[in-house]
Structure of Guanosine nucleotide diphosphate dissociation inhibitor:
Amino acid sequence: MDTDYDAIVLGTGLKECIISGLLSVDGLKVLHIDRNNYYGGDSASLNLVQLWERFRPGQTPPKSLGSSRDYNVDMVPKFLMANGNLVKVLVHTDVVKYLEFKSVDGSYVVNKSRMEKVPATDMEALRSPLLGLLEKNRVRKFLSYIQKWDPSNPAPQGGLDLQRMSMAELYKYYAVNEMTVDFIGHALALHTNDQYMHQPAAPTAEKIKLYYTSLTRFEGTKSPYIYPMYGLGELPQAFARLSAVYGGTYMLAKPDAKVVYEGGKAVGVTSENETAKAKLVVGDPSYFPDKVRKTSQVVRAMCLMSHPIPNTDNSHSVQIILPQKQVNRKSDIYVFCCSYSHNVAPKDKWIAFVSTTVETSNPEQELSSGLALLGVIDEKFVEVSDLYEPLSDGKQDKCFISRGYDATSHFETTANDVLDMYQRIQGRPLDLSEKDPSKTQTT
């Protein structure tokens, strides 16, 4: 084992692999270690045999499900916003050349127990039963203002100062009703709860603009989301390849890897009686049990099905958001579905996931509203995961720790955590303005 590195990265989850790739591109000498013998960590994609080993050890998958190797079941299922920060990172690093993406068929929101498509065009908006006639006109004026609003201009625009007024005040100004607020806040801005209502309107306006720039990024798309062919397990492997191209070293199957400290600072990692020195250590929370705190839990149900989700126009891939108020909760419920069209299952098989933040002592019951949308389920697996966050920013102890993967079915919070970690490590933000995300290839 070479003994001196600029950085050692522990864990091959997506966040860790992105950081490893970015630091390698920056010219740092990086060693990447994982206790597992596969890439992906908590964000891995499993075949059928691996899925059964994880949830039903000693049992074998039924032959009716088809070949094990035809499945790539994500443990942390999420779509990418077509113009979001993760896509910008993929383009910035040229990792897109290792990947192929396919657009997601549709985005839906539950309103008064009915599943409605989030409009993707002006014509769809006019026909949408989500909004009444007068409400459509108010929403049109609201969205027209948001699309013209320039976030780089701190001065009031159109007589409104979104840096100072709250989002609740902006909604009130346009007189949109409560159902519209639910739709805009959770299906467009993708907020996970309603705390944003009492915060400045500008960040939410930027989130709404991101939704529409993602929706229009690729011609003919029906949603703002894209998803990699063969599943999300392709992403950490692509960034691992990037790191290797720039000289990064990988070591898998090191279950005893532990951080070494001197004077309260991380100075390296030891494994199999060998120690590799480094100026800093990056990793997921599981490698730093004394430096993280548990913040919440996420419950996820993974469902194998032989049909698309009902009432989604036979979509091969779809996101459905159940806003918290619609299901009498404090947190939204997310439904994610993909199929053989993305090469994650055999022909005529679908994989659906339902996830939310745990609020009670019966997590699986909390998914019932989402599971009820799926129709007949062939096989179901449920997992509850603890979420952790670092106690400090890592600048003092040289331990730069990622956060857990939340319940959202998109990657925006994940990408924001990666960019925050990069800035803490390098002392400067990652410049994502150099390249055009439209270069991302979709089919």
User: Anything to note?
Assistant: The mean pLDDT is 90.
